[in-house]
Amino acid sequence: MSQSSKGNLKDFDWKLKLALESNKVSALNSPIIELTLHTEIDSVSVEMDSHRLDSVIHKIREALLKATEDITN
Fold it and tell me: How many percent of the chain have pLDDT more than 90?
């Protein structure tokens, strides 16, 4: 969602799911988060496991730190 044509983030929703099995693996038993981002124009939903979520949170923190540094300099 790096395109400016998607608009500004207005709100988000999340759900925590537990994937018990899939057509590829008989027993997953792993948590999955569904994140829905709502912009002025539309909404985008993604599902990710805990490792991917940690990576996304880390990147958001880096972007926030960079934006804060740019404002203060």
Answer: 48
